[in-house]
Amino acid sequence: MSKIKNGIIFIVLLITICITNISCSKKVITGKYRTNFNIYGMFSETLTLDCEGNVIMNFSGDLQNNNSIGSWKREKDTLIMFFDTIINKKNKFKGEYKLLIKKNKLKKIPITKAYYKEIIKIYKSKNYDYKHIRNYRKLNRTPKNHYGKTGVLYYKKIENTDCKK
Description:
By secondary structure, the protein is α+β, with helices and mostly antiparallel strands.
């Protein structure tokens, strides 16, 4: 009876170790992502991350279609993309672009309240018109349509890429 009990404990321990190892392993972020809704009801973005560190950001809608080509790297829970307009002059996206990695989603990094207050303070000190800046509550939200409805925009994974050679 004790051999069976020891065998069951060993199997449970082995399964627990395997599950812990899988859940704590580095998440694979390569693949294809699409925005969760169309901006203003017509513009969408598709993001493709390949295994070699290349990125293609497709912006389309309302007779527009642009593929911005760049490179990407991962630092902890942040995806950092860089779009070089010297190499690719037709890139709509320029410079560095950062997104937070959350499971199968890539989220834009929100502006903090302290940073928002700092921007308003700078505008006031230089006597700039700061009334056109959206209030903080609406700042991290994206317009869904022309009627004022907003939502939190993120990129949802729609396709996986296998990097094994």
